[in-house]
Amino acid sequence: SARPISSKDDVKLRIGHGLFSKKVAAIYEYLFMDASRVGYFVANAARVHRRYLLAGWLLFFIGTAGFLAGAISLPDPKYFLLFWVGLIGMGYLVVQLAPYVPLRTPQGRRELGQYLGYRQYLTQNEPIGAHQGLDLFLQQLPTAWALRAQQGWARRFRSTVFHRPNWYFTTKPLETSVDFVQDIDHLVSFVAESFSSVREKSLQ
Q1: Alpha helices in 74-123, H assignment, sequence order
Q2: Which of 42, 77, 98, 181 could pair covalently with 154 via S-S, beta carbons 3.0-4.6 A apart?
């Protein structure tokens, strides 16, 4: 029997129609809340960002009001307007940087350090012996992709005889694990970027 095959255009169509939007946004929110419960992120992260945004817009509007009032009422030379210009610039800077305020707790930073250490293991130059087979490669590939180490991880198996997994279909000849990762990389990157954009639009 024929099995379903999803292409890049299929995924684009489904995302464009919004079939995944609410589900993906809910998954992102659940994962973030779960990570916050175990102490990796500060509580009420969205509220923290909103406070910085509010402070930035407040500085911006106060600076704008002060600049307009000074431009009308202050005598020449109006050097004091530079203060209000600086306040406007500071408010704008706070608004732009608010989404990037670090939200990890000390425990979250330690956990991130452990993942980065594991990423170094995945990208080592030392090949992994053929006796360990492709099961290890496929088992750790999702983690390698999440850590953006898929290319390095695939290179560690470049001397291992590769067989395309049954769940992946392509007309291209895939002779090595590196060929496999390069072939699927474009689709995975596209899906990840699309889902990320769904999260940014839906989780406010």
Answers
A1: 81-97, 106-122
A2: 181
Degrees, nearest 5: CA angle 65-68-71: 145
pLDDT tens digits, 59-107? 999 999 999 998 888 888 778 889 999 999 999 999 988 877 778 888 9
| The one-letter amino acid at 143 | T
In this structure, are residues 52 and 101 in contact, taking their beta carbons and an 8 Å threshold?
yes
Question: What pTM did the predictor assign?
Answer: 0.58
Helix, strand, or coil here: 175?
Answer: coil
59/66 Cα distance (integer angstroms): 10
Tokens standing for 25?
Answer: 């946004």
Distance CA 43, CA 180 (A): 40
CB-based burial of residue 34 (10 Å sphere; 0-12 exposed, 13-18 middle, 19+ buried)? exposed
Residues 79 and 48: beta-carbon distance below 8 Å: no
Q: What is the pLDDT of residue 32?
A: 78
